TrEMBL record:
Residue ranges of the region described as Disordered: 1-21, 319-339
Superkingdom in the source lineage: Eukaryota
GO biological process, one term: proteolysis
Annotated InterPro entries: Nep1/2-like (IPR044613), Papain-like_cys_pep_sf (IPR038765), Peptidase_C48_C (IPR003653), Ribosome-inact_prot_sf (IPR036041)
Lineage, highest ranks first: Eukaryota, Viridiplantae, Streptophyta, Embryophyta, Tracheophyta
Swiss-Prot/TrEMBL keywords: Hydrolase, Protease, Thiol protease
GO molecular function: cysteine-type peptidase activity; deNEDDylase activity; rRNA N-glycosylase activity
Family stated for the protein in its record: Belongs to the peptidase C48 family.
Residue ranges of every copy of the Ubiquitin-like protease family profile domain listed in the record: 450-608, 661-819
Gene3D superfamilies to which the protein is assigned, alphabetical: Adenoviral Proteinase, Chain A
Protein name: Ubiquitin-like protease family profile domain-containing protein
Length: 866
């Protein structure tokens, strides 16, 4: 008899053994680290699920809580050393860590005595709350392998509290470990960590992450009471992005067991503080992360002396036996081997990967049943149950009143154009009321302080097609508005990224499509060498927010002319969206002027962003406003408002003055000691070096722009043939792989295409951090292989090494300057390469001086520009 599809997908195994309460995550290899991190986190989650007393099925959702007791040991391995983080399971609380130097526990008023029950335990000089270990806020935590290695290095060498030797970073690095390993119990944080864990880009989690971290216990309470009591009215925990129970279910992987003590979650609460708690031993089994510590002291013997030395007599009433003292003696870290390979079942990991996939949930329920693990049924029937606003129980009534007022306003029979006040507000919203207009000659090559050319502003005049620059500027502005309101699940994709996605380059697509609403500009241009070419614009929206989703909805004001391009992009993105995501055409006014398509895109994108920012109004979706806000008259006035906002409130500067005073702020800030170098600074220095070479009559050396290098490394090699025709090409290499974050990444290095010296043709990679960027440099060289001479090879160049974690950018600049200096001074027939120049000119002292000199130079340039 043939197996059913369901049986095919489930592992044919008997009861699986209980997962061990320890796992090891290796930091040694950068490649594959994301996968190792994912599997280790799944092991921790599965251990929680297996040992949880409460597992509940709510429709196709699985809800489970932390165990009522237990300890988990999460081991990091790096360079044959180990750091084991100790996690108190009931509260999902990282309470300390173990190394070869001993045991270290955070301060706590909740626990009487030591949780890490050893004579070798030392108390850390800080507590475990986020105010102590994340002074800049949990949302400011940066996640990537280099950040993890940094915290590992500090903790593995830590030997105990000392006024002279304590690292000032210890508390914040411990806080980073908490966020990286424990706060990833939130789906969004976990997926963010997975996307950046190979050092792909340097991104903070943001305010949304901070809120859900701080509200874990409150959200656990609301969900547990909701599924256990059908009459319970849940609230939104103060998180305005949550509108219904489904939203709340999408936040956390597991819940705090003490969020609820009644009904189906009936259990005894924890003892009052300070409570007696102690770690549990490591489960039996072989590990790979044994922590070598001093031997536990033996018990004092209080009986008669056996060495002839008199001891003080102890009266029978106070005498203690050796057995009694053994019971009191701290037991140390005992049990099986610490650490080990992750062992979460494949069916569980697939459930984690395909979050909210119905079939994966069914498979997991069947698997748990085969193990004899009880899953209870929810007391509340699945439905789109609303959450009331915490602190504002009348929010729904207010929203209904507001909606009625809007309907009355639109239905009063008057002209549907914008009122003067609305027009002025829109202009001020786009512009800057504090700035003053200037009277310069209408040179269309002049740039405004926002980076727009006057020719781009001129594209907003009546009858003209809106330029890509204006569209991308407005996309950026609406994105910043969303972030400013703490909204991180709605994303606007810039036109270049959308174009490259449509060409099949899906780097970063998974992260983009993990958001609830994604807005893509669709362009009919098919010329890969000219992504900004003339074309028609439309809007494609990935909607996983409303009850109509998941869906792709396409708005095309040109009568469906862009449908093939929208369907092409939707097809390319299909592997990254939930199964069953549909595609259909949305209803929108058709434009009367063929040049208005770009404005329709901007108007629709703006409307959806504003709808998302006010989604507590409980509208089904944004369609109710779309027709009234995109009429011909409103689009005409919208064009005028944008033009006024950008034209009248901008100061313009000549092309030879690169930026206005406040426009160097990012570069100057990145030159402060201890800061990572900004992408803009890399490009600025490369521009300066290029100009110096040209001034010296050298035209065969090219310094590639950082953004161009980024696109090359992601497969878009338009222009590569011309670039690689030069004798020497210097590429700034960054470890960012997210296509929608061209300014990301955490490490810089230099790749040189050398066709000038006798050792060429070759690619030479200079990395000041021990080859950390080697995979990215090699990939870039491989992408450029079709455009370089046959036999061109890749080699790691000997490079001075930085002595900290943040100087990679300044080393990259110093190495580039040295190569340019070598080329300038190179005598005819000199076949030696630049390595001697690099080793002479680049070291810790010279890079420090270079950072200071560049800082002073940019500050002076600001004053000059002013």
């Amino acid at each position: 008899m043939a197996l059913t599809r369901k049986q095919d997908r489930l592992p044919s195994v008997p009861k699986s053994p209980r997962p061990r309460n320890t796992v090891s995550l290796s930091l040694d290899a950068t490649e594959g680290f994301r996968d190792r991190y994912f599997k280790c986190q799944c092991h921790l989650y599965y251990w929680m699920l297996y040992n949880s007393r409460f597992r509940v099925r709510y429709g196709d959702h699985l809800i489970f809580t932390t165990p009522l007791s237990g300890t988990f040991y999460y081991v990091l391995r790096y360079r044959k050393q180990h750091v084991a983080f100790v996690i108190e399971a009931r509260q999902a609380w990282m309470i300390g860590f173990c190394t070869k130097n001993g045991f270290f526990q955070v301060q706590s008023h909740d626990i009487e005595g030591l949780y890490m029950d050893s004579m070798q335990t030392k108390i850390l000089p800080f507590s475990g709350n986020h105010k102590s270990i994340s002074p800049s806020g949990a949302g400011s935590t940066i996640a990537n392998i280099y950040a993890v290695r940094r915290l590992f290095d500090v903790m593995s060498n830590y030997s105990g509290p000392s006024h002279h030797h304590d690292s000032p970073e210890l508390a914040s690095l411990f806080g980073s470990a908490v966020v990286l390993l424990m706060e990833a119990k939130a789906w969004e944080i976990f997926m963010t960590h997975c996307n950046v864990m190979e050092g792909l880009f340097d991104e903070m989690l943001g305010g949304w992450a901070k809120r859900i971290i701080n509200n874990w216990s409150a959200a656990s309470q609301q969900l547990l009471y909701s599924v256990g009591d059908s009459d319970f009215l849940p609230h939104d925990c103060g998180i305005i992005q949550l509108n219904n129970i489904e939203d709340l279910l999408d936040v956390f992987i597991y819940l705090h067991v003490d969020g609820c003590f009644t009904r189906m979650f009936q259990h005894e609460p924890m003892d009052p503080e300070p409570r007696k708690l102690s770690w549990e031993q490591i489960d039996e089994g072989i590990g790979d992360g044994d922590i070598i510590v001093l031997k536990e002291p033996g018990p004092r013997f209080t009986g008669p002396s056996t060495s002839g030395v008199l001891r003080k007599r102890v009266t029978p009433d106070t005498r203690e036996t050796i057995e009694e003292r053994k019971k009191k003696k701290p037991k140390g870290l005992i049990g099986g081997g610490l650490g080990g390979e992750p062992a979460a079942p494949e069916v569980f990991m697939q459930w984690i990967k395909a979050h909210n996939d119905k079939q994966r949930c069914i498979d997991l329920f069947a698997f748990l049943d085969s193990l004899g693990l009880t899953v209870l049924d929810s007391k509340r029937q699945p439905a789109n149950w609303p959450l009331w606003r915490l602190g504002d129980p009348e929010a729904k009534q207010k929203a209904d009143c507001l909606k009625t007022e809007e309907l009355n306003k639109d239905g009063n029979g008057k002209d549907d154009g914008m009122q003067k006040e609305e027009l002025n507000a829109m202009a001020n919203e786009i512009g800057d009321p504090a700035s003053t207009s200037s009277t310069v000659k209408p040179d269309l090559s002049i740039r405004t302080k926002r980076g727009l050319r006057l020719s781009e502003l001129a594209s907003l005049e009546a009858g003209k097609h809106v330029s890509d620059g204006v569209i991308n500027f407005l996309i950026q502005q609406y994105s910043e508005e969303l972030l400013g309101k703490g909204i991180h699940d709605t994303v606007l994709i810039d036109s270049d990224t959308s174009f490259f996605l449509s060409q099949g380059n899906t780097t970063g697509a998974m992260e983009m499509c993990s958001n609830r609403i994604v807005i893509f500009p669709i362009n009919s241009n098919e010329e890969s060498y000219n992504p900004g070419g003339p074309s028609l614009w439309s809007v494609l929206v990935l909607d996983k927010w409303t009850k109509h989703g998941p869906r792709f909805i396409h708005y095309d004001s040109s009568g469906g002319a862009n449908v093939p391009f929208a369907k092409q992009l939707a097809t390319i993105l299909n592997p990254f969206v939930p199964q069953g995501t549909s595609f259909f055409e949305g209803s929108i006014h058709e434009q009367l002027d063929s040049s208005d398509c770009g404005l329709y895109f901007v108007a629709v994108a703006r409307l959806i962003c504003r709808w998302r920012a006010s989604s507590e109004l409980s509208k089904e979706d944004w369609d109710s406003d779309l027709q009234s806000k995109t009429s011909t008259k409103k689009i005409a006035k919208f064009r005028k408002a944008i033009y006024c906002g950008l034209r009248e409130h901008e100061e313009t500067v000549p092309n030879n003055v690169r930026r206005q005073m406040n426009q160097y702020s990012n570069e100057i800030a990145s030159l402060e000691n201890g800061q990572f170098i900004d992408d803009g600074l890399i490009n600025l220095i490369f521009e300066q070096c290029s100009q110096e070479l040209v001034n010296n009559g050298i035209n065969d050396v090219i310094l590639a722009d950082a953004n161009v290098t980024f696109l090359f490394n992601n497969g878009n090699t338009a222009g590569a043939l011309e670039l690689c025709s030069n004798s020497l090409v210097i590429f700034p290499v960054n470890n960012n792989e997210e296509l929608n974050r061209a300014g990301g990444g955490t490490h810089w290095s230099i790749l040189v295409l050398d066709k000038l010296t006798n050792d060429g043709p070759r690619f030479v990679h200079h990395d000041s951090s021990g080859g950390a960027n080697s995979p990215f440099a090699f990939r870039l060289a491989d992408k450029l292989q079709p455009f370089v001479p046959p036999g061109t090879y890749f080699v790691e160049g000997e490079t001075p090494q930085q002595i900290n974690s943040f100087d990679c950018g300044i080393y990259a600049i110093a190495i580039t300057k040295s190569i340019c200096q070598w080329r300038t001074n190179r005598a005819l027939g000199d076949d030696q390469d630049w390595s001697g120049y690099v080793w002479t000119a680049v070291n810790a002292e010279t890079t420090t001086n270079l950072r200071l000199a560049l800082h002073q130079e940019l500050q002076q340039l600001q004053i000059t520009d002013e």
